[in-house]
Amino acid sequence: MVGLRTFIEGWPVYRQLTGTDPLGRGAAARSAGSALASGAAVGLIAAPSTEADPARRMAVAGAALELFGSHRVETRLGLLSEPYRTGRAGRLLRAGRVLTAAGVAGAVLGRRSRAVSVLSGAALLAASLATRFGVFHAGVASAADPRYTVVPQRERLERRWAARTAEADR
After folding, report:
1. Taking a C-beta distance cutoff of 8 angstroms, is the pair 37, 58 a contact?
2. Among 10, 81, 111, 143, which residue is least crowded by beta carbons within 10 Å?
3. Cα–Cα distance measured from residue 72 to residue 24, given in angstroms and rounded to the nearest whole number
4. What's the rounded Cα separation, in Å, for the pair 7 and 12?
5. Tens of pLDDT along 24-51?
6. What is the reported pTM?
């Protein structure tokens, strides 16, 4: 609930500033990619190596989508992206990126080896878990520090005030 409040505060600010919704799109891409990569991970673990090619393709697509979404959320939001890069959340998200890269590399390079397929699937599942906990801890950190809520509110208020004054001067 606390993370939702921070999300609600951050979302309109950047939608208004950029005319887009980078938080929503980035978070959606990250979530969809994570789900796709997790499904592929189970396929890599459960399927024989000779029948795991669809799971390998899903792993690559899911990892690309997840990494794209992560990059969007962690770099395009200014102050609001800080909790994603620092502290426990930052460490978990970096570990998630490393595990995702290792899982995809293993899935692509270890086509013939059952052991490598299982290890890549395990790495992708661990990456998904690390990413989810990283996002959770980023929400907790942003809710604990009022500047992630107060600063965007003040900036919005100042923009509205400036727009009203400019409109009144016309």
Report:
1. yes
2. 111
3. 10
4. 9
5. 666 667 667 777 777 778 888 888 888 8
6. 0.72
Specify the amino acid at residue 110. Answer: G
Degrees, nearest 5: CA angle 73-149-128: 30
Query: What is the Cα Rg of the chain in Å?
Result: 20
What are the contacts of 30-33 at 24+ separation with CB within 8 A?
30/65, 30/66, 30/69, 30/70, 30/72, 30/73, 30/131, 30/135, 31/69, 32/62, 32/65, 32/66, 32/69, 33/61, 33/62, 33/63, 33/64, 33/65, 33/66, 33/67, 33/68, 33/69
Taking phi over 0 as left and psi of -120 to 50 as alpha, with beta for the rest, 166 belongs to alpha
